[in-house]
Structures are given as structure tokens and as C-alpha cells.
Design goal:
398 residues; 16 helices; 0% strand; mainly alpha; disordered C terminus
């Protein structure tokens, strides 16, 4: 009797759900991106409030150590920032209205000053066209020139659009201010509540250390950047005022605010200042002096001051920072580009304490993972197990 041929069927072993884990991670990332884009009206002020609360935490802590009640300390911190922003807006709104009213005049002056450059470009284009026609073997009939049409759009003016969007912006700012105030007031209560969660002792200690490191890394980092960029704003406003550029305070504030956006913010403001200098000044020396001065200030800040004070607190990959700024800037606009770096630092700190996200920590790190930097920190003094020896002595006494 002939033996039956045995057919071996290959067996697929699933180790830890790895076969389905990767597609689920991809779907989760896509879902987070879709929710972040659709819910941007809610997430933008929420993220801004979290960043503001972390940035103002050192100020509130100093006030509380001076025997100021925590509610008053949080209110004073938020109110101080609100007063600064209100003062800048009070100076900026009349200037912006004046720019809008003088837009035709400014455009005409800019065209007149750039007329020489435009003639040079036209001459170069003419020469290029003649060379191309001479090199052509067979003349081709030139297509009919398109008829230029001027279409007048019947829509709202810029002031009308600003007036229609102002209530929503005010509501978002109010929500962000209230949420930042509540986060500052109850920041210590949240830590104590986390320690009361009925989970394993090691998990509670890990979460408590993660909250401590978030406070130290993100909070102190943002506060240090706020101080540095305030100096950048003051220096820029002073230099531009000495050069005679109108609205120097506004340009200085924009320079300081744009410094929160690496790689992109400062060059954009420098280009705008250069355009304003072309419109305002007649001397090319003064026209070039304004952007050159801002460029020197930016180089001094980015290459010397900021690395000296905050390089140890911010260890992010340059590519990750650029992609994060581009992604959040596309999803949430200017506010997203400003809060991109703080959110990346927050995410890398959380990933440093979770073994399942250690790969994300390594991808976001620059040279050394955050977990190696945090490993040298002492353990939490407020979270300790009951001493084992004392318990044994009590049992023996019974």
C-alpha cells in the first residue's frame, strides 16, 4: 500500500500581534491627522493654552514661593502676558489700518523704486528671446497674444473680513486664557491625583517622573526662549527706531514672535522689513541697513545666545523640527508653526518614559535619546515605598 504524500502547510506565527500592529499604527496616525485638521478650531486654542501654561509655570512658581496664593499667582501670570499682548495690539491695529488705507500709494512708490530692476529684467528677457529666435531652425508662428482681462471680485473688503472673524478670534483667545489659568492653578493637584490612581506602584512613579520632567524640560525651555526672544524684540525695535523705520516697535515684536518658528520665521520678517525699507527710505544704504541689522541680531541669537542657554533642554532632530513646523503650519496656520517645537519636546519627553514609544524618542532625538539624559536625574523624593525594615519590626513585636 503506497504511503500518502504529506503536504506541509506553512504556519504563520504572530509574535506580539506584530502582523496587525503596524497597520493599526498607520491607521491611528492617519486618524489623528484627520481629527487634528477637522477639529483645528478647538485644538489650536487648546494647544496654545497648554504651551502658555507651561511657559508661565516658572513665573507662577516664583510668585507662590513669595507667599502669594496660587490663584493670585496664576491670575497675575496670565494677566501680565495679556497686558503685553493688548499693548502690542493697541499699537499694531492703527498701523495696520494705515497700511491698508495707504496701500495704493505704497504700491506706486514700490513700483517706481523698482523700475530700474524691472527694466533690467525686461532687457534680459528681450536678449534671451532674440537669441532663442536666432537659434531656431524654422520660424514658428507666434500664437495670438491672450487678451488681458480684469475681473472685479464682488466680495468683502479686508476690513470687513477682519470684522467678521474678530468674534471667533476673541472667543478662542478667551478660552485659551481661561484654560491656561486653570492649568496653572491646578497643576499640583493634578500630580497628586495621578498618584492616587489605583494602578501599580511602578506605573504611578513613572507617570509622576514624566510630569516632573515635562515641567522642567518644556516649562523652563519655553520660559528661557520667551526671555531670549523678548531681548530679540527689544534689540530689533531699538535698531529699527534708530534707523528711522516707522512702526519699529511692531516690527520688533514680530521679529521676537517669529523667532519661535525656527528656519522660517526670522527670514520672513527680515524680508518684510526689507520691503518696508524700500518703500520708506530713498537712500540704498539705509534700505540695506535694516535687514542687515536684523540678520546680525538673528545670527547672534540663533548661533550663540540660544545654544548657550537652552541647548541642553532641547535635543530634537533638525529634520523632525522642520517637518513638524511644516505639518502643523499647514494644519493650524501660524499658531501651529509657533507651538510645533514645544509640542515636539512634550512628545519626546512622554515617549522617554514609555517603553512602547522608545522608537519615537530615538527618531526625535538629536544625538542622545532623552531617556539617557533623564536617567541621571535623582528619583522623586515625594514618592517612596514604606520602609520594609519598619514593617518587619512591627510584625516581630506582635
Amino acid at each position: 500500500m503506497a504511503e500518502k504524500a504529506t503536504v506541509r502547510v506553512p504556519t504563520v506565527h504572530l509574535r506580539g500581534g506584530s502582523a496587525i500592529r503596524r497597520p493599526l499604527i498607520v491607521l491611528a496616525v492617519c486618524a489623528v491627522g484627520v481629527v487634528g485638521y477637522l477639529a483645528r478650531d478647538f485644538l489650536i486654542p487648546t494647544a496654545g493654552a497648554v504651551v502658555l501654561a507651561l511657559m508661565l509655570t516658572p513665573v507662577a512658581t516664583v510668585l507662590e514661593r513669595s507667599h502669594v496664593p496660587k490663584t493670585l499667582a496664576a491670575a497675575a501670570s496670565v494677566s501680565l502676558l495679556a497686558l503685553v499682548l493688548a499693548g502690542v495690539l493697541a499699537l499694531a491695529i492703527p498701523s495696520i489700518a494705515g497700511w491698508i488705507a495707504d496701500a495704493p500709494t505704497l504700491t506706486y512708490r514700490l513700483e517706481k523704486k523698482l523700475e530700474g530692476v524691472r527694466e533690467s529684467i525686461a532687457t534680459l528677457q528681450k536678449v534671451t528671446k532674440q537669441v532663442t529666435e536666432a537659434a531656431a531652425t524654422a520660424p514658428a508662428t507666434s500664437p495670438a497674444s491672450p487678451v488681458e482681462k480684469v475681473v472685479m471680485q464682488d466680495g468683502k473688503s479686508l476690513l470687513g473680513q477682519l470684522a467678521s472673524t474678530t468674534p471667533a478670534v476673541v472667543l478662542q483667545l478667551g478660552y485659551a486664557a481661561v484654560l491656561a489659568f486653570m492649568l496653572l492653578v491646578h497643576r499640583n493637584d493634578h500630580r497628586r491625583q495621578v498618584l492616587r490612581v489605583p494602578v501599580a506602584f511602578a506605573t504611578r512613579v513613572r507617570v509622576a517622573r514624566m510630569m516632573r520632567d515635562i515641567n522642567e524640560r518644556v516649562g523652563h525651555y519655553l520660559f528661557a526662549l520667551a526671555v531670549i526672544y523678548s531681548g530679540v524684540a527689544a534689540a530689533s525695535a531699538t535698531v529699527l527706531a534708530l534707523l528711522g523705520l516707522p512702526n519699529a516697535i511692531i516690527w520688533g515684536f514680530l521679529m521676537g514672535l517669529a523667532s519661535f518658528v525656527p528656519f522660517i520665521g526670522a527670514p520672513v520678517v527680515i524680508a518684510l522689513v526689507a520691503a518696508a525699507g524700500v518703500v520708506t527710505f530713498d537712500d540704498w544704504t539705509r534700505i540695506a541697513a535694516a535687514p542687515v541689522a536684523l540678520t546680525l541680531i538673528h545670527i547672534a541669537e540663533s548661533q550663540f545666545v540660544t545654544p548657550f542657554f537652552v541647548s541642553r533642554r532641547c535635543a530634537l532632530n533638525t529634520v523632525a523640527v522642520f517637518v513638524g513646523i511644516a505639518l502643523l503650519g499647514w494644519m493650524w496656520g501660524i499658531i501651529g508653526a509657533i507651538v510645533a517645537v514645544p509640542l515636539l519636546i512634550l512628545l519626546s519627553t512622554i515617549a522617554a518614559h514609555l517603553p512602547s514609544l522608545r522608537w519615537l524618542e530615538i527618531m526625535l532625538a538629536d544625538d542622545r535619546p532623552v531617556s539617557e539624559r533623564l536617567a541621571v536625574k535623582p528619583p522623586l523624593a515625594s514618592v517612596k515605598r514604606p520602609p520594609v525594615q519598619v514593617r518587619r519590626r512591627r510584625v516581630a513585636a506582635r
